[in-house]
Structure formats: C-alpha cells, structure tokens
Write a structure and sequence with these properties.
The chain contains six helices and twelve strands. It is of the alpha/beta class. The chain has one domain: Rossmann fold (3-Layer(aba) Sandwich), CATH 3.40.50. Helix 3 crosses helix 4. It is globular. It binds flavin-adenine dinucleotide (FAD). Flavin-adenine dinucleotide binds next to helix 1, strand 4, helix 3, strand 6 and helix 4.
C-alpha cells in the first residue's frame, strides 16, 4: 500500500494574458483563466500509475483561494481519491517559505503518507523552491527533476535525465519527489471520472486548523517581495535581407556582426 500525497497548484492559464495587481504586485487572479498547472497533472498521473500498479491511495493537497477547488476537482476526476484544500484570506501574497510551511502542515494531516509528489516548478511563481523547503521542514529526503519513478517496497528509485546521461537516484520512504515536464503524458479525465469526483471528499482547512500562526503567512509577513515587474517588450521587426545573388553572404555577415558565428 503506497499512501501518496500530490501537491497541486492552480495557476493562471499560460494561454491567457497574465498580469500583476497594480496595488501590491501579487498575482491578479481575476485577469486570467485559472487552471490546474500542467506539471501537476503530470504529478497526479505519476501517483495514479503507482496506485494502479498495486494498492495505494492518492490525496491531493492545494493551498489557494476558493476557486482552487476547480483544480482540485480536476485532479480528483483524473482518479485521485480525496483532497485537502487550504483556503484562508490570511494567505494572500504568501512567499514560498510560508506556502511551504502551510503545505508541510497539511501533508502532516495525511496519516501514514509514504510519498509526496510535486512539480519541479510552478508555471506562475517559478520559484522551484517549495518542494525542497517542504522536504527540509518534514525532515525527508528529496529527489528532484525526476523523469522516471519506481516504488520498490520501502524505497523509491528515480532516474533524472541530464545532458550528459542519466542519474540514478534512490531514497527511503517517506520521501519528496519533484517531477519534470517529460515524465509522462497525463490522462484526460473520463466522464465517469468527472461524475465520481463530485462525490469525493475535499477537506477545507484554514491556517488555524493546521496550527500555523497567521503572523507567519501573507504578504505583510513575506521575507521577500516583488518590487517591480514589467511586461516583455514587444518583438521588434527583424532585419530584412534582399537577395540579389549575394543573400548567403549577407546572412553570414549579419550573423558575424551578432557574434552568432
Ligand atoms: C505574481 C506573483 C507574485 C509573487 N510575489 C511574491 C513575493 O512578493 N515574494 C515571494 O517570496 N514570493 C512571491 N511569489 C511567489 C509565491 O509566493 C509562490 O507562488 C508560492 O509561494 C509558491 O512558489 P512557486 O509558485 O514558485 O512554487 P514552486 O516552488 O515553483 O512550485 C513547485 C511545486 O510545488 C507545489 N506547490 C507550489 N505552490 C503550491 C500551492 N500553493 N499549493 C499546492 N502545491 C504547491 C506544486 O507541486 C508545484 O509544482 C509570487 C508569485 C506570483 C505568481
């Protein structure tokens, strides 16, 4: 029996125009469609594969505003069994450290968990820090940038692909694993899965329910802050090369001037 926790984050859809709120540089959540982060769909898929290979239970845990329930329901409709949703106005603007503290406390609510699966990096905050902080807080080993994962009794084996080859990693359970984008192709929820998800238990908790002090979370208590953000400058028009029989040399001269060749 593998008792798996998957951390899922609701993020603004990368296909929408994403903005920061002018008032405090936190995310303007209303300006974009919200979706379950794709890397977290892959984390759920990996958990479901382990569950389907033997006995197991998958609990999804999310820290986010009320509408994060949509992301949670999607994970449940893929096949996860139950969920914990931490939702509290005090969490607005929390930094990665505070978010990780709250997630660690929520994970500890899942009795006898063996494995925590996360994404390497969320597509909005892109800190890539939360899983490592959680591993430290819970005193657990962490395997990062995982491309292949196997549970082997009381230990876990993982492969990480690098430019130079494959790194084989191993840790005793319980452990935290963060997965890379190439790990799998997540399944689409089936109609049956969507219907079943409506009845699956979702426990909604506040920071007080988790025993976390509200003075440790939120924008006012963040240890770091976003001071300024500016949109990417629009693309400038490219250089046009007229081919009058010497197009190749002109392109080569341009590339030399740009120090590209
Ligand atoms: C617009 C904007 C402004 C921000 N401002 C600040 C700021 O001022 N100061 C600051 O320190 N930070 C700021 N952040 C970072 C913000 O606090 C983080 O989004 C949050 O703490 C998680 O970090 P991350 O998104 O970088 O996660 P990562 O560490 O990149 O996430 C990796 C994985 O951890 C898990 N995970 C992460 N967050 C959650 C969650 N909420 N619920 C469940 N699982 C989760 C997921 O599995 C995810 O794939 C800002 C982020 C945004 C988008």
């Amino acid at each position: 029996m593998t008792n798996i926790v998957v951390l899922v984050k609701q993020v603004p859809d990368t296909y929408s125009e994403r903005k920061l709120s002018g008032a405090d540089n936190t995310l303007d959540r209303e300006s974009a469609d919200a979706v379950l982060d794709e890397i977290n769909e892959k984390a759920v898929e990996e958990a479901l594969k382990i569950k389907e290979a033997g006995e197991g239970e998958v609990t999804v845990v999310s820290v986010g505003p009320d509408r994060a329930t949509d992301a949670i329901r999607k994970a449940l409709s893929m096949g996860a069994d139950k969920a914990i949703h931490v939702s509290d106005a005090a969490l607005h603007g929390s930094d990665a450290i505070a978010t990780a503290k709250v997630l660690a406390a929520a994970i500890s609510k899942v009795e006898g968990f063996d494995l925590v699966i996360t994404g390497n990096e969320a597509s909005d905050g892109r800190g890539g820090a939360v899983p490592a902080i959680i591993a430290e807080l819970l005193g657990l080993p962490q395997l990062t940038h995982v491309n292949e994962l196997t549970v082997d009794g009381t230990s876990i084996k993982a492969d990480r692909y690098t430019e130079d080859g494959v790194t084989h990693l191993e840790a005793n359970l319980p452990a935290v694993v963060s997965v890379g984008e190439k790990i799998n192709e997540p399944r689409y929820p089936s109609f049956k899965g969507i219907m079943a998800a409506k009845k699956k238990p979702v426990e909604t908790l506040t920071v007080a329910d988790l025993g976390v002090d509200a003075a440790e979370v939120g924008l006012g208590n963040a240890w770091s802050s976003v001071l300024e953000a500016s949109p990417k400058p629009p693309r400038t028009a490219g250089e046009r090369v007229e081919d009058e029989g010497d197009g190749g040399s002109k392109v080569a001269a341009y590339l030399v001037a740009q120090k590209l060749i």
